[in-house]
C-alpha cells in the first residue's frame, strides 16, 4: 500500500506498537520503501505475520478445509484484515493528515472507519465458495462484527445463502426441452 504524509520510519514505529499491543509481536513490515521527495514523506509497505500460526496471521481464501490454519484454511504469512485495520487506525490517529492508497480503497483520517468496514464484507474467495477477509483468520470479531452490517448494508457472506440452487448446479434434464432443441437444430440444417 502507498502512504502519503508518513515516513517509512514512522510506519515501522506504528506497526511495532500495534503488533506489541494487540498481536503478541507477530505483525511486521514485510517490504517497505521510503519514497519521500520534495512533496513530503511517503512510503510503500506490506504487512506480514512472522508466525503463520500466531495472532494476526491470515488463512487462505480457499474453502477446501485441507489446511491447518484458521477454519481449515492453508496458513499464509499475510497479515489478516484485522491487523491491517488496527495498523491503519493507529496510523491515522498519529498522523491525521496521512492518505493511504490500497488496491481496494483510498483512505484518509475522516473516511477511514466507514471505508475500511465496508471492505470487510467484500468477497475474497471465489463465486462458488465466497468468504470475507475477516473470516480468513482466528481473530476475535466482537469488536468489528456489529459494525459490518451497519456500514456495508449487506453484511457477511452468509453460509446459508452462498450455494447456488440444485437447478443451477446441474444442466437442464427436461427431456421435452432437449427434444425441442434437437428438433430446432435439425430443422436449421
Question: Can you tell me about this structure?
Answer:
By secondary structure, the chain is α+β, with helices and mostly antiparallel strands. It has one domain (2-169). 33% of the residues lie in helices and 17% in strands. The strands form two sheets. Strands 2-3-1-6-7 form a five-stranded antiparallel beta sheet. Strands 4-5 form a two-stranded antiparallel sheet. Helix 1 (8-22) packs across helix 2 and helix 3 crosses helix 4. The longest helix has 15 residues, at 8-22. Residues 145-172 have low confidence and may be disordered.
Shape: elongated
Mean pLDDT over all positions: 75
Low-confidence regions = 145-172
Cα radius of gyration in angstroms: 22 Å
Q: Level of helix content?
A: 25-40%
Strand order of the largest sheet: 2-3-1-6-7
Number of distinct beta strands? 7
Alpha-beta content class: alpha+beta
Order of helices and strands: EHEEEEHEEHHHH
Strand content: 15-25%
Largest sheet: 5 strands, antiparallel
What's the helix count? 6
How many discrete domains?
A: 1
Distance between the termini: 58 Å
Keywords:
189 residues, alpha+beta, 5-stranded antiparallel beta sheet, two-stranded antiparallel sheet, 6 helices, elongated
Summed up:
The chain has helices at 8-22, 81-94, 112-119, 145-152, 166-169, 175-188, and strands at residues 2-4, 27-34, 42-49, 57-59, 75-79, 99-101, 106-108.
Amino acid at each position: 500500500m502507498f502512504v502519503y504524509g508518513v515516513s517509512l520510519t514512522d510506519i515501522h514505529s506504528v506497526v511495532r506498537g500495534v503488533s506489541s499491543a494487540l498481536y503478541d509481536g507477530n505483525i511486521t513490515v514485510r517490504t517497505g520503501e521510503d519514497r519521500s521527495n520534495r512533496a513530503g514523506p511517503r512510503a510503500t509497505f506490506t504487512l506480514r505475520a512472522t508466525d503463520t500460526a500466531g495472532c494476526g496471521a491470515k488463512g487462505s481464501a480457499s474453502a477446501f478445509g485441507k489446511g491447518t490454519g484458521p477454519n481449515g484454511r492453508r496458513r499464509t504469512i499475510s497479515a489478516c484484515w484485522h491487523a491491517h485495520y488496527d495498523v491503519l487506525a493507529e496510523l491515522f490517529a498519529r498522523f491525521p493528515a496521512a492518505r493511504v492508497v490500497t488496491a481496494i480503497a483510498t483512505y484518509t483520517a475522516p473516511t477511514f472507519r466507514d471505508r475500511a468496514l465496508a471492505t470487510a464484507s467484500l468477497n475474497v474467495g471465489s463465486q462458488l465458495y465466497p468468504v470475507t477477509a475477516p473470516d480468513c483468520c482466528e481473530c476475535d470479531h466482537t469488536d468489528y462484527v456489529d459494525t459490518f452490517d451497519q456500514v456495508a448494508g449487506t453484511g457477511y457472506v452468509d453460509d446459508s445463502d452462498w450455494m447456488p440452487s440444485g437447478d443451477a448446479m446441474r444442466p437442464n434434464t427436461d427431456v421435452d426441452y432437449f427434444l425441442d432443441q434437437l428438433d430446432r437444430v435439425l430443422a436449421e440444417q
